[in-house]
Design a protein that fits this description.
Largest interface: A-B, 46 and 46 residues
CATH topology of the largest domain in chain A: Creatine Amidinohydrolase
Largest sheet of chain A: 6 strands, mixed
Order of helices and strands of chain A: HHEHEEHEHEHEHHHEEEEEHHEEEEEEEH
Oligomer: homodimer
Distance between the termini of chain A: 40 Å
Strand content of chain A: 15-25%
Number of helices of chain A: 12
CATH architecture of the largest domain in chain A: Alpha-Beta Complex
CATH superfamily of the largest domain in chain A: Creatinase/methionine aminopeptidase superfamily
Number of domains of chain A: 2
Number of strands of chain A: 18
Helix content of chain A: 25-40%
Amino acid sequence: MGSNYSSRRSKLIRQLKNLGVDGLLISGLSNVRYLTGFTGDSTWLFVTASDTLMLSDTRYETQLEDECPGVGVRIRDARRSMNDVVSDVVRESGIERLGIESDHLTLSQFHALQSKTEAIEFIFTASAVEQLRQIKDKWELEQIRDAIRFAEKGIAVVRSMLRPDLSERQIRFILEEAMRSFGAGGTAFEPIVGVGPTGALPHAHAGLRLVSDSPALLIDWGAQTFSGYRSDLTRVFFTARPTRQMQQVYEVVLKAQQAAIQAIRPGVRCCEVDAVARNLIAEAGFGRYFGHGLGHGIGLDIHESARMSPSSEQVFEAGMVTTVEPGIYLPGKFGVRIEDDVLVTAGGYEVLTSVPREFADAVV
Amino acid sequence: MGSNYSSRRSKLIRQLKNLGVDGLLISGLSNVRYLTGFTGDSTWLFVTASDTLMLSDTRYETQLEDECPGVGVRIRDARRSMNDVVSDVVRESGIERLGIESDHLTLSQFHALQSKTEAIEFIFTASAVEQLRQIKDKWELEQIRDAIRFAEKGIAVVRSMLRPDLSERQIRFILEEAMRSFGAGGTAFEPIVGVGPTGALPHAHAGLRLVSDSPALLIDWGAQTFSGYRSDLTRVFFTARPTRQMQQVYEVVLKAQQAAIQAIRPGVRCCEVDAVARNLIAEAGFGRYFGHGLGHGIGLDIHESARMSPSSEQVFEAGMVTTVEPGIYLPGKFGVRIEDDVLVTAGGYEVLTSVPREFADAVV
């Protein structure tokens, strides 16, 4: 596949010392996939300097052989719990300090684990794998570019089929089927399709409102590759003559988005880029109508680190892929959000998405 | 909608004393939806004897008004964290002992919460809402019956369209689109479509294998209503003359499933029903090829309490809906699983699903 799971695990193993642990227990599903290529669930990864073991059950015995050749596997039957197996492998390995993923392990899981594994010390490692995942390798970038291509071909179909009597839901389904027909494994998330006031709800579900109910149609969508990588875009289309306010709001959002994108480069803090967009929107008098963060990383998950928000002290690095998605939402009227996917490069940034975004392009 | 969210919350409030708490913080997404009807995310529910507050952010301000009329809402802006708001409402309420959902809250979330909310005592309540959700009310049963109907109409379309050159993936997409065209909001989970050896992987992804590659085709699928309720079925179809072993395995699985279903009634332990099927499969010599639990509750989540496994001491009660899904998987050859959705009734059980399941029905 061109993806090198063992080199990713090597990077993690090189961090064990810095994390102050002899071993790591990886329970986050996307983290397990990132490190091994395994696409199932209910499976944890145990890593030490000398051992790599997938802890799973009989449902996944054959699938693990297929997807993770060369990786050790410990299969339990229906009578034993995951914690029983963790207890076994920890004891056998002789480690003393086990790192666990405190961003993924629930309180209940941790307490059950503690009660089975008394002799060792647990170290909370919040996001060791997430930090590796922030920087996309060449193969991952190819996957994200594919996910973008499926999404962009899909929206072109929708755009060509827009007519007054389509409902939000019908548009959602046309979009999903089009993306698949071009090769997507599925959607990156439930597409948001909102006409007029529905578009003013940043996370609305596509409902029964018709295109003819308002000139403004907001679509927030993305595709997922069969390899699990995602894209995330938003466009607003004007399906009838937009009001002056619609045009004004659109131009403000676009200006804010473009200025924020141009501020992206290695070394800049996420809150600084967020502020570029937020200040422009506030200066235009719409500050209270932009309540969410400016963007987020994408990859195997639709919301990854780094997050752009007023309080985010994270710093951009080359190889990160982030959405940039300012919005203005006028309750009961309409919403405008413009969202693109941007790669941080050594010299600054590259916009990976190419659906036209000028106001004139939005009028269909 | 016919659903009574406030009576569900009243049931929970009546349990505060038994749980040893003055208030509860509900952070599980499906639990919040169950208690309020809210369909978004990133939103927690704070409940005391006198207060009911949704803790959310500006993205959901209008949606909360629409979906949860009469419920108090506390909206934070992008500069404040969820824990800041929890800290506020806990202080204002004057409570001393706060119940948290230890099955949902991660270690990181809990530690952040603790650091913001020092004066109170936290009580771990693992599954208070999950226990309420086990017993489905009349409206919920209607939703599940709808989800089953969409799934059954969908599989009838697939069955009518089966032909040798279809791939697993094509079948998956035909099925998903058919379920939607009958009124489903989507799938209950990623449908499993496995020809021959793929069907021997209990949780395989639909791939590129063709129907013509083996007589045995396993499909595990379900629909989801727009209200969020799910169905879950599995059938095996023989698209060419099945081998004698295929027929033998099929008959063993069906016998095990039917015997297990007939053992379901209020008061019986889940492990006892599991044992009925497991013993029959073991007696037929296939014990080591059935590695997973016999079934699980369904509802707003695809896997709910109660779970049927050899170690499950949970007891069936009238109003529960469970899958019954024994399987035999012969690695590299084929798999047979037969799965139906069963309601526990006062007098015993009612099988809610009606897709034919005799061996003769399986031969298409």
